Amino acid sequence: MPEPVPATPQLLRRVSAGAVLEFMRASAAVTVTDVMAATGLTRATTIAVCEDLVRRGWLLELENQREFGGYRKGRPARRFELNERAGVVLGVDIGYSKVTVVVSDLRGRTLGRSSRPFQAGEVASAERIAFIDAVAMAALGSADAEPGQVLAVCAGVAAPVDRHGEVVATQKFWGLFDLGLRPALMATHGWTVLLENDANLAALGDRWQGAAAGVDDVVVILASERLGSGIVEGGRLVHGTRGSAGELAYLNMVEGVGDTYGIAYLARTWAAEALAGSAPTALRDCRPGRVEAEQVFAAAAHGDAVALDILDRLAERMARVVGTVATMLNPELVVIGGGVAGSADVLLANISERLKKFTATPARVAVSPLGDSIVTVGAVRCALDYVERNSLDLELAAPSGSRAPDPGWP
Hints:
With about 400 residues, this protein is of the alpha/beta class. The chain folds into 3 domains: about 10-80, Arc Repressor Mutant, subunit A, CATH 1.10.10; about 90-200 and about 375-395, 2-Layer Sandwich (Nucleotidyltransferase, domain 5); about 210-370, Nucleotidyltransferase, domain 5, CATH 3.30.420. The protein is built from 13 helices and 13 strands. A hairpin with a 5-residue loop joins strand 9 and strand 10 (about 230-235). The longest helix is centred in the C-terminal third of the chain and has 25 residues, at about 305-330. The protein is globular, with a radius of gyration of 24 Å. Keywords: Kinase, Transferase.
């Protein structure tokens, strides 16, 4: 068990500043009393923290105003507001064949975005890093932001990431994401880059802005092409010793599942198999080439028998998957996320009904409203967490005050 970190004045300053910024991120203009109530800090500490954060450029102190048409004795309350454009963070989703970068302000609002397909396959790390950098520059351009304004970057990859931020490259596919991205972007731009598993980021993102908001025990399953999951237990993201908590490779041994292929992949594959036969189906009217999952769901909505059979098979399979998760982890909620989530809503009733066959502790099942943005939303959340924890160590590109910060407050 690690030794507890001593509560030094420096640590207390850092924790207090992070708590204030976390509250300010979700608030409009607030008074010192509001901050005290939200953080539990004393008045003296709250004032010292807010004044220091103003000097550093993180907060703005607003002009005092009295209520219109009224009068109150005494000095008007001091009011502070987050300087939401003091810097930006980047949320990155590095897939096998696509890279997406989102630029966010310090409230988590999207300012710009860029997404580009990438030539899948074994490509040199330097080439892939250059591609990711180009997408990031395009996203910054769309947000009218400069590289020097970036306070942190979080990138999600389809591989386990250990506690030191290193990709666990013990499988060939995972090794494709072991690029050396962190030192490369630090050398090029001076950026701090956080690496995280994409399903873990999906769990952070959905718990922040999705179906799992406010739920402390939840598993989020990315379910489009391959199945992977992120686990939040007691409000904390679970990583495991080498970052592979939530890895679903065990599904290869689960009866009625047998692999980790996801909903989109299976819908497409089973549709192709049906079209190779002679059964009448509206799927034959789809454009030449492969039938996409959305077309299968649309055909099922119009009563197509082949498409309905595919949805029935998907519901049975996902019920088995969710059943194993519910048995082992006992979450309150299991969320199906990823690009296919919008269509998967029609599977919920069948999955929930069948769960009783596969587990004695069935969880509630939902689909994420975040769609294919779920990983970048989580990456933004992760980057903002880093910024709030380390605000006293980060130098803003354009601080709002000219006075040097006072190191003396406790």
